[in-house]
Amino acid sequence: MRDEITMADECDVSKIVTTFLPNTCRLPPRICKNNLQAAVECANAVLEQEAYGIPLITGSIAEFYIEPMLPHIGDVDLMYNFNTQLAIPRGHSPPTQLPAEFHYGVKVFEIIDSHLPGYVYLELRYILKKRTDDGEYNYTETDKGFYAANHIPRSVHNKVDIHGPAVLHDYMDKRYIPIDYVGCVRCLSWPPQAADWPTRLRNYGWPDSATLDRVVSNGCDLVHVAHRQCRQHERKGILQWRLSFSRAEIVLINSWMPVQQIAYHLLRVYVKTERLTESADNSEPAIMSNYHIKTLMLWACELKPTSWWTENLNLVRICVELLQTLSIWLTGSRCPHYFVNNCNLLDNSLSDGAVASKLMSIDETYLSTWLVNNYIRQCAQLCPSYISRLFDDAGTSMKLPKAVSEIVRWRVNTSLSDMWEAVVYAEVAIPKATSTHSLTARSCVCWINELTKIDERLAVYFVGVTLLHVARKISRNGFRGRMIDILATIIQRKYSQCCSVLSEPNTSELVEFLQKSAVEHLTTYRQSVARDFGSVATIVTTDFEALYAYKRGDYQRCLQLSTRNVHTLLFAVNMTTVLTLPEFIQLFDDDVVSLAALMVIVNPECTVEDGYDTAYICQVTLSLYLVTQCQLKLRHSVTSVTSLARTLDYIKGTQRRVPREHTLDHLTLKYIKRQVELLK
Q1: What DSSP element (H or E) covers 81?
Q2: Which pTM value belongs to this model?
Q3: Close Cβ partners of 497 (under 8 Å, ≥ 6 residues apart)
Q4: Measuring CA to CA, how many Å separate 390 from each of 21, 383, 384, 414?
Q5: Strand, coil or helix: what is 541?
Q6: Count of H helices and E strands in the chain?
Q7: Which of 169, 255, 359, 660 could join 327 via S-S bond, C-beta 3.0 to 4.6 A?
Q8: What is the 3-state secondary structure (H, E, C) of 588-621?
Q9: How confident is the model at residue 266 (pLDDT cuts 50, 70, 90)?
Q10: Which residues contact 105 (CB under 8 A, 6 or more apart)?
C-alpha cells in the first residue's frame, strides 16, 4: 500500500475535498453521544445546596453544530459560576435585582483593570442581601483592599490535572470523554474593556444586529488565570483574572454558515496534527493554541463578504488563505483579540519563524494532498474494510473519486443507525444519572433544558423516568418536601391533578398516579422513536403499557398487548431493551426482581455501580414473560394446549437468538420455559 497520494490534478483534488466535507459533516437536527454526555455532566453538576455553581456547557460541544466524520471533541468544557458571587464594571452601582438562581447573599466584586489588556483584578465592594418581602436586594459597602484569589488551593494543584483555569476529570472508562471544569465569576453586563466591539463598523453585516444584541445581553465571565508574564509573580499570579467571552463565542460561532464551521474544523485538525500548538521541546508554552484559530476565524467571518465563502466554493483555497493570514500574524507577533482593543494574543517574547514560514508556504496542491492523506484516509479507516481497501489503489486523482464517494455513501447510509446508538445510550445514561445523583427541582430544570436542545423526545423520556424516581422514593421514604418541588417542576400542567392526589394522605394512591403518568410519558416516547427509527430497529410501543396492565391485574389487556408484541419482535434483527434499573424495577413483579438479583449472583459485574450496560431485558423476552404469566393467571378461560405449545416454541426460538451475554434474558427464558412445561 502506498503511503502518499501523488496528485495529478490540483483543481480536481481540491474539488473532491470540497465535495467530501459538506457531505460527511452532519447537520442538526441529530442526536449524538458527545452532546448527551455533556448534558448529563451539566445536570449532575447542579447541586441541592442553596450556594452552588451554575453550570454552562462551553467549548467545542456548544460551539459546533456540525458533526464531522473525524472526532472533533476532545473534552466537555463545563464552566460554573457560583451563585454567591457577582462581578460588575468599576464605578457601576450594585444591582437591586438578580436572576432567580442567585443566592440571597451575594458578594459583588468590582472589575479593576490590570496593566495588561484583557486581564483584571476583582476587588470586593458590596455585600447584597435579598429582601423577603419583594425579592430585591439591599447592599452594604465593604472596605477596599480585599481581592478575589485563586479558588483552587496550591496544595491541591499537585493532586489534580490543572491546565490554565481548568480542572480536568478524566474517566477510567474511555467510552466517556474527559471533563474540563472551569470556575468563574459572572458579570451580567458587557464589560467596558470591550465597549467598542458592539458598535464598531462592519462592512459585511456579520454579526447582524440581533446577534449583537444577544451577545451583549449575555455579559461575560471572569476566569482565574494570570497572564503568562505574571504567573510566577507572588501576588499577581494569585489575584489576576482573565475576561472570558465563552458565552459570546457560542452565540457567534453557532451563527456561522456550515462552510465556516467546516473551515474552522479543518484548521484545528491541521494545526493539531502538525503539532503546531506544541513547543519545540515542551519546556516552554506553545506560541499557538486553538484560541488563536478561533480568533482568526471570528475576524475572517467579520471582515470577509459572504461571497468569499460561498461563490465557487473551494474549502482548500479558503483554508490556505486563512493559514497564510495566521502566518502573517505569527511573523509580526500580532494576534488582535476579537473583543478587547489593544489586546495582543501573541506574546512578543515567544517567536517561531519556522512555523510562520511553514504556514506561508502552504498552497492548494500541498493542502489538498495533506487532507486526502491525513483526513480522508482516516475517515476511510472508520468504514468497512471493503471501502478502506479502495485507498490501496487510489494513488491518482482518477481513482480517488470512487473511493471518496464510497465513504460519503456509507456515511449517509449510517446516519440513522448512529443516531439510534446515541438514543440507546441516552436511554441508559439518563436513568443511571437520575438514580445515582441527588435529583432536585433545580437539576430537573437543567435536565429538561439541556435535553430539549438535543431532542425534545429525550426530555419526555426524562420526565417519565423522573416520575418513576419520585414514586420509588415516596414508596420507600414517605412523602418529602423535595419531592413536591420536583413534581411541581416536571408536571406543571398536570400539577393540579397531582395536588388533588396529594390532598389525600395516601401514599399508595400517589405512587399509582406517578407510575401511571410515567407510563404515559414513556409510551409517548416509544411511539416517537418507533416512528423515526423503525427502519434500523424493531421497536414496540406498548411494552410499558403491558407492564403496567399486569401490575394493575388487568391480565386480559396485558395478554393482548404482549401477544401482539411477541409477533412483532419474534424475528427482529436489532433487539430493543427495557431497563431493569431501580427506577424501572418497580413496574416488574417479584419474580423478575428475584431473577434480576440472581443475575448479579451469576454475573457479579451486573452490580448497581458497574452493571448499567447489562441491566436490561429484551422487549421480546419481557413480552414472552408477560404472555406466559397472563396465561397462567387466566388458564381456566383462555389458555389451551395449543397456545401453550406455541408459546413454548417462541421461548425456544428466542433462547437461540438472544446473545449469551444477556444474562437476565436467559434466566427469564429458562424460568418461563419451565413454567410452561409444568403447566402442559
Answers
A1: strand 76-82
A2: 0.90
A3: 513
A4: 19, 11, 11, 19
A5: coil
A6: 29, 13
A7: 359
A8: CCHHHHHHHHHHHHHCCCCCCCCCCCCCEEEHHH
A9: very high
A10: 84, 127, 128, 129, 130
